[in-house]
Design a protein that fits this description.
It contains 19 helices and 7 strands. β4, α13 and β5 form a beta-alpha-beta unit. The protein is α/β, with parallel strands linked by helices and 395 residues long. The longest helix is centred in the last third of the chain and has 19 residues. Strands 1-5-4-2-3 form a 5-stranded mixed sheet. The chain has a two-stranded antiparallel sheet with strand order 6-7. The chain is globular.
């Protein structure tokens, strides 16, 4: 019987689709940056110190794989993880949309599927966690909307109200008037906000509330992973500057929610293609001359974001060794070739890690199926190209 997990790993690598399972088994590469990330996670878990970082890299060089590795590392540290790829529907300049998508892609430790509302439903109205969260919502946030909302959520017995209030916590914000009506029905008290809540101005309250909630629920912190950050470059001039402001809420310790660590992954060409080519510093000085911070600091971080260095020969060989081992388990055979031979077979696949991996799997596929392998290359777009066969490799 073939190894189901090994087959899953090989198929994920073959497709080039990022996989948390792949990140779990292929985590030894780039030890230097992984040590830094591990140290940052320890600061969150042990001291509650929040921070963020940006990593950059060329297409196919392993940015998303690195995020998946961090995903597994965070879960092993009993941390909640949220994962998001920016897109046209989820632009970084609209923090309330980012919140909604992040909450929808939030994973509790040891959970394969996203979601945590089932844990929230276990909190009773007069429990220590409930009392702490209500005090926090009333005193520590910019607005007190979440105090009224969470208290209503804990005390309503109406299923429709419960659904609306839960949807709000998940980012489908309800208007102020219906919330006030629900609260008055339950407690016979009139709601008077200290600051009138708007989602475009006060969404940070929700991030702060959730980070505090995760800590009260017994987790060691909240890790936020955001991929495809370079898509900010497609926004309009002013929207890009607002996106940098939004990023500051995840990168700058004095603005981060408590006990959080965030990573943004973006293309290595962002500094040249966007910051320099579109004159971002000049745009910032022109549009926001009196309030350039925190966008300017984020621009500085983006401009000097550390780039993933190419893997060493030993690191590549370690990856190829694991691929060969998983391939054998996945298809119940024993590949009889040296790692040097497998590495040589991937040379024509280009310099990208992703194409090297796919070339190695294609080479092993041919050996498994035919007992010999053609000289296979996979170009940077992932298109397979075949040339004439090379002599049979003896088994």
């Amino acid at each position: 019987m073939y190894d189901v997990e090994a087959r899953h790993i090989i198929e994920a690598l073959r497709s080039g689709i990022p996989s948390r399972a792949v990140g779990q088994y292929f985590s030894e590469a780039r030890p230097r940056i992984m040590r830094e990330i591990s140290d940052r996670l320890d600061l969150v878990c042990e001291q509650g110190k929040s921070s963020g970082m940006i990593i950059s890299g060329k297409y196919g060089e392993g940015k998303t794989h690195l995020l998946n590795t961090v995903f597994n590392l965070a879960h092993s540290n009993n941390m909640v993880v949220s994962y998001l790829s920016l897109s046209k529907e989820t632009p970084m300049d609209k923090l309330y949309l980012v919140y909604q998508k992040l909450i929808g892609n939030t994973y509790l430790p040891r959970r394969q599927q996203p979601g945590f509302m089932h844990e929230l439903e276990k909190i009773s109205a007069n429990s220590p966690v409930a009392n702490e969260m209500l005090l926090y919502a009333a005193k520590q946030l910019e607005t007190d909307k979440l105090y009224y909302l969470f208290r209503s959520y804990l005390n309503t017995e109406d299923s429709d109200e419960k659904f609306l209030l839960q949807a709000d916590l998940e980012g489908d914000f309800i208007a102020n008037a219906p919330l006030k009506k629900i609260y008055k029905r339950i407690f016979n008290q009139t709601v008077k906000y200290n600051v009138n809540f708007t989602k475009t101005r006060h969404c940070r309250d929700y991030f702060s509330f959730m980070s505090h909630l995760f800590m009260q629920m017994g987790y060691h912190g909240w890790v936020i992973l955001i991929d495809e950050t370079e898509l900010m470059g497609r926004l309009s001039k002013k929207a890009r500057l607002n996106a940098y402001r939004s990023m500051a809420n995840f990168l700058l310790p004095d603005r981060c929610p408590e006990s959080t660590f965030s990573i943004f992954a973006l293309s290595a060409s962002y500094a040249e293609d966007v910051i320099e080519a579109k004159h971002e510093y000049e745009n910032l000085a022109m549009i926001y001359p009196e309030e350039q911070e925190p966008a300017k600091t984020v621009l500085d971080l983006l401009a000097r974001a550390p780039q993933l260095v190419p893997l060493t020969r030993d690191e590549i060989h370690e990856i190829l060794y694991k691929i060969q081992d998983f391939h054998g388990k996945a298809y119940e055979w024993t590949p009889s070739l040296s790692i040097d031979s497998l590495a040589e077979a991937t040379q024509s696949g280009g310099y990208l890690l992703r194409t090297k991996i796919r070339a190695a799997i294609e080479f092993l596929d041919q050996l498994y199926q035919y007992g010999k392998a053609g000289k296979t290359t996979i170009n940077e777009l992932g298109e397979e190209v075949y040339t004439e066969d090379v002599p049979v490799i003896e088994e």
